[in-house]
Task: inverse folding
C-alpha cells in the first residue's frame, strides 16, 4: 500500500504482460493513433490518469477535433502491444520540450521521412529501437 500522500503506481507496473523488445514489435501504420478513452480502458486506468501521464511527458498525444468533441489522440508508434509507452518516449518528449516543440510538432517530425531520399520515417526508426538517432533528429529540427 502506498504511503499517505504518495501517488498510486501506474496499472501496468503490476501487469503480467510480457515486455517485447522494440525490434520484435508488430508493425503499425505510423499514422495510426488511438483515442485517449480507448487507451485508458486498454491500460486499465482512468482517462484523467492517462491525461496526467501525457502532461508529465510519458506519452505523446495531440488534439483532434472530431465534430463537437475534442479528444487527445495517442500515436501508435510510441506504444507496445499492451498500450504502454516504448522505452525512450519520455526522453523523446523531453528533447522536444527542450526545443520548445509541442506534441503536435513532435508528431509531425516523427512522420517525416528520414534523410532526403529515405523511404522510412523517424517513427519507424523509433519503433526499431534507434532511439538515440531519433532524439538527435528531434534536437536538430
Result:
Amino acid at each position: 500500500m502506498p504511503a499517505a500522500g504518495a501517488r498510486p503506481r501506474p496499472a501496468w507496473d503490476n501487469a503480467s504482460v510480457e515486455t517485447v523488445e522494440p525490434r520484435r514489435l508488430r508493425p503499425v501504420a505510423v499514422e495510426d493513433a488511438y483515442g485517449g478513452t480507448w487507451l485508458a480502458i486498454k491500460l486499465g486506468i482512468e482517462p484523467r490518469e492517462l491525461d496526467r501521464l501525457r502532461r508529465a511527458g510519458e506519452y505523446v498525444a495531440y488534439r483532434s477535433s472530431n465534430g463537437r468533441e475534442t479528444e487527445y489522440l495517442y500515436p501508435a508508434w510510441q506504444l507496445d502491444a499492451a498500450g504502454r509507452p516504448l522505452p525512450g518516449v519520455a526522453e523523446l518528449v523531453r528533447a522536444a520540450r527542450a526545443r520548445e516543440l509541442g506534441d503536435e510538432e513532435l508528431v509531425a517530425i516523427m512522420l517525416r521521412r528520414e534523410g532526403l531520399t529515405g523511404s522510412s520515417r523517424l517513427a519507424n526508426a523509433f519503433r526499431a529501437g534507434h532511439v538515440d538517432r531519433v532524439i538527435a533528429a528531434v534536437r536538430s529540427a
Q: What stands out?
A: Residues 14-20 have pLDDT under 50 and may be disordered. Residues 28-140 form one domain. Residues 109 and 141 are 8 Å apart (CA to CA). The first strand starts at residue 33 and ends at 35.
